[in-house]
Description:
- 51% of the residues lie in helices and 6% in strands.
- It is mainly alpha-helical.
- It has 2 domains: 20-166; 240-370, CBS-domain (Roll), CATH 3.10.580.
Amino acid sequence: MTRLVPWLRRFWPAPLNAGRRERVLGCLGALFGLLASESLSHLALGESNPWFVAPMGASAVLLFAVPASPLAQPWSIIGGNFVSALIGITCAQWFGHSGVSGAIAVSLATGVMFALRCLHPPGGAVALTCVLGGPAVQAMGYGFAVWPVAINSMCMLLVALAFNNLSRRHYPHLPPVPPQSHGTADRPPSERIGITHEDFDAVLKAHGEQLDIGVDDLEELLLAVERRAYRRRFGEVRCGDMMSRDLLTVTPALPLGEAWELLVRHRIKALPVVEGHRLVGILSLHDFLVSRSSPSTAEGAHVDAHPQVVADLMSADVVTVRPEQPIVDTVPLFSDAGLHHLPVVDAAHAVVGMLTQSDLVAALFRAGLDRPAQPPASEGGPAQA
């Protein structure tokens, strides 16, 4: 009995972490996707029975309820459904339209989907439909794999691409490209110590089971958990606590020579560019160095034969943070993305401060000093009061 109760608890469903918005989007996406699929199925099979390809319902759940799943990606739905249909039709012609033939078809389809990296659970239902679908499906032969299965899958995919991206989901779900700002073979700083991508691959390979989550998503989740744990352990040091507030700013119309003089005179490496108080860009030493119009003298008295202004050289695509953000959020920006300066802006995108890599180092060092010291444990066990 003591073993039975824990075993029975495994049957209790785990809580779903999807928010209300994701649940509503999943329902609406399935509605639109299946309406489009139904129209094509009706066109292909007319009033015959069945005229609706039922496995598309399972595809809709994947594409719209869990679009980040590796099983819901474009190649999975197109390749998985089409290949499974071909296998199902072949099994029906060779072994007849029986339950045994259907089981063989689903087994073979699963193996081929594994081999082609297009595992899609509805593909098993497609293979079974091809065997047990009745006279209408049998009469179409291999044409059924193209029309309506492949066309239905493409239609569903087009709806998923439009719907998911319009609702601000990232689909197809591509793995993030690791930032490498220096163009060298070195790993990003965050991967040089601790858990690496290869660690994930090795552990998952040893685990052996197919997981319904991508390695990159798993890695991203772990990093987010680590940052959350760090904030809980060291306290909430926010960007507004460490930023420089007394800033030098320039306008887009300021001559480049004057901007260069500000950088040299104040020994700083970047200037926020503002119109009014709103941030519109950033001008750094790097912008001068990589530009053809770099200053010809150390003093910057002469920039170019033609007058040039800050707007001609500044970087308009600026990564910013908010004062209330935990400063630990800036770690990947400074380390992996290679940024040196982060303007801090308020809700109106007005510049209220500047963070640098030095500020980050100081903040993390201070957080470590403020952490209560742990008494050393003796060799014989925990220290006693």
